[in-house]
Amino acid sequence: MTADPARSRLLDELWNRDHRYYELARQHVHATASSPGEYDFLRAHLPAAGDILEVGCGEGSNMEVLAAPGRRFVGCDLSALALRLARDASPADGARRFVRGEGEALPFADGTFCAVMGISLLEHLPHPEMVIAEMARVLAPDGTLLLLSPQYGGPLGASPCRRGGGAVRFLRRLLRAHLPRRGTEMGWERVAPSLLAGAAHGGDRDAVIEPELTGLVRCLSHLGLQPLVVTSGLEWATWLDSPGSLPQQLARAVCERLGRLGVRPYRNFGPLVAVAARRPRREP
Ligand SMILES: C[S@@+](CC[C@H](N)C(=O)[O-])C[C@H]1O[C@@H](n2cnc3c(N)ncnc32)[C@H](O)[C@@H]1O
Description:
By secondary structure, this protein is an alpha/beta fold. It has helices at about 5-15, 20-35, 40-45, 60-65, 80-90, 130-135, 165-180, 215-220, 245-260, and strands at about 50-55, 70-75, 95-100, 115-120, 140-150, 190, 210, 225-230, 270-280. The strands form two sheets. It has a seven-stranded mixed sheet with strand order 3-2-1-4-5-9-8, with helices on both faces. A two-stranded antiparallel sheet has the order 6-7. The chain starts with a helix and ends in a 6-residue tail after the last strand. S-adenosylmethionine binds near residues 56, 61 and 79.
C-alpha cells in the first residue's frame, strides 16, 4: 500500500473503525441527492447502462442514489468496514459489487469501465495525481470520468482542517489564479486532518489536501482526457462552510458576482470542483 502516515492513521482510527462516520456520509449523500445540483450533474453524465467504477465508494450511498436498471456498479475502497456496510445495504441482484483496493493502484485491467467516478474523494488523497492517472487507465476509450469534491483550494475556500490565515491565503491564491501556471503539478496544498488531533466529527475533518479546479483541469489534459464539463458549481451550490468575517464576506460577494457573470478566473472560484471528462478513442 502507498505509504503516507496521515492516511495510515485515518484508515486505522477512522475509516476502518467508525460506523458513525459512514452514517453521517450516508445522510449527507441522500440529502444532497434530493436537492437540485450536484447529483443532477452526475446523473446527466453517467452512462445509462454499463460497468461503472466508484473509487472511494465508502458506505455505497452514491451507488444507491445513482442506481438505474442497466448500470452495474463496482465500488472500490481502502476500508474493509466501508465495504461491509456497502455490501449489507446492497440488493442481492449483483448490480453492485465491492472490491477492496487503493486508488493509487486500482486492481482492474486497463479500459475496464465505461465510467469512473470519485465523489468526495479528492480531498482525502495525499497523492491525487496518482489516483486520477489510475482512474484514467481503467477507463475505456470514449468512457467518462466524473469527479466531484469541495473546492477547498480555491481563493474563497478552505478545508475545515484549516485555522486562521484567511486574508493572506485569499490574496495569495487570488494572485496565483491570475498568473500563468508552469509545469504539470496540480499544486494542491496539504492540510493536517483535525480529526486526528481530537476534533469532533463533522464534514471533512479527515481532509488531507485542498482540491482546486484549475490544477485539476491541467492534470486531466496532461493525461490526455478531454473535459466535457468543468464547473466550480456557482450555478448550483451554496457555500459549504460558515460565512466568515466581514472582509471575507465582501471578498466572496465580489468574486462570486464576477464568477456568475462568467469572468475568468472568478468563474472557477465556486464551492466545488466538478468535472466530467472523456477519454478519447485515440490518445492525442
Ligand atoms: C468521505 S468518504 C466518501 C464516501 C463516498 N464516496 C461518499 O460520497 O459518501 C471517503 C472514502 O474514501 C476512502 N478512501 C480514502 N482514500 C482512498 C484511496 N486512496 N483509495 C481508495 N479509497 C480511499 C475512505 O476509506 C473513505 O471510505
